[in-house]
Fold this sequence. Notes:
By secondary structure, the protein is mainly alpha-helical. The chain contains 18 helices and 8 strands. Helix 4 (60-73) packs parallel to helix 5 and helix 11 (227-240) packs across helix 12. The longest helix is centred in the C-terminal third of the chain and has 34 residues, at 290-323. The radius of gyration is 24 Å and the shape is flat.
Amino acid sequence: METFEEIQLKYQGFSLRDIYLYHCNQMRLRANSGLANLLPNTPDQFSLIRELDLSANFVSVNGFYPLLEVMYASNRLETLIAKGNGLTNDVMIPLCRIAVLHPSLAVIDVSDNPKLSTPAGQALLKLVQKNPRFRRICTDGTLIPPDIAKKIATWTAKNEAAFLAKQPTNARVLQIENLFFNELKKTDADKLRVPVRNLRMCESLRSEEIWGYKLLWSDTGLAPLTRAEDDLLTKGFRATDTQNSGQLDHPQLCRVFYTDLGEIFVNKEDAEFAKLFSRLDADEDGLVSLDEAKLILRNHMTYEAVKARNEVIQLVRDNFIIAAEGKTQLTREQLGPLLKMIEKKLAARVKGDEEKIYAFAAGENGLVEENAFVESFVLQQALEDDVMCSVLVHTKKPPGTSLHPPKEEDGEE
Length: 413
């Protein structure tokens, strides 16, 4: 099979979505629009997805074939979830052939596909034997014989043990995977899907890398505008465009954002907004159309959401360092005061559940280290608090939301 470098050259100028649509066209298949929208639409960026979850989109056997090249091109894909997609033994053979050579794929969930039987089981068994990265294969709800399923489980357990032995932080990866696949109810798992995906490889919520390139109108990394936001921007744009030219310059657009979209608030001196304006000014004439203005708004709101999320994470980290008194780990007794410090800093919105956080974060020595605490805190807050869930999980910052308590006024003049 082709190397990743050959794949990059082969699909130069393509996005992952383009690759999917291209192969649908080659096979004369109608593309699944829901699936297409899951795939990033930024050209030459094949490292954008860590997880491909098809459980909400019935792909079917024929529709799965165009995805195989997308999966192989996605060199940082770690998890494939294809529950209940009508898969058959025929499609599992090429899937496993690709998975054997894939540089990062480690988890495959093909449960609830009752047409999978012995040939699929044999292919999956060979996969976990040949590729030691595979540590989880889910086959519940299939006709794969129990003896083959047991052998697959034995091999994945060996691979998981080897993965765990590589470095201590891998224990957190496995604990989060177990939470996601085995412990949470489906509704809770769906709510936690984004933070679990972000945390799975312990690269905790540092998303600045996505701003290294322009996110396009149709990119799934951008939050869509609500009807109210679209109407406000359109109305303000047209009111400011007194010449009916269909375009605004940077100061004019800032004025629209500042007045008509006050909840989002963009300072016209904001360097990040100026940079965004420049990057999304397609013809570099200093003017943008209404569609470009909407794209700028979507980029800006997504960027602000990332900043808000990182603000919370950094505050949590800073307070951990204070509570730990310069050490790298906390005791159970120090955890309660730490949570109270965080609650105070976050306007008492956050009520950390000490027992749950400790149960999830404590190591074998009974101590809690920084990354483990951050992960546990984020998951608990995303699950139990709607506002914090919006900040930590969603792609848009809640309008008018402040993450800090109001400043206390001095009692004396």
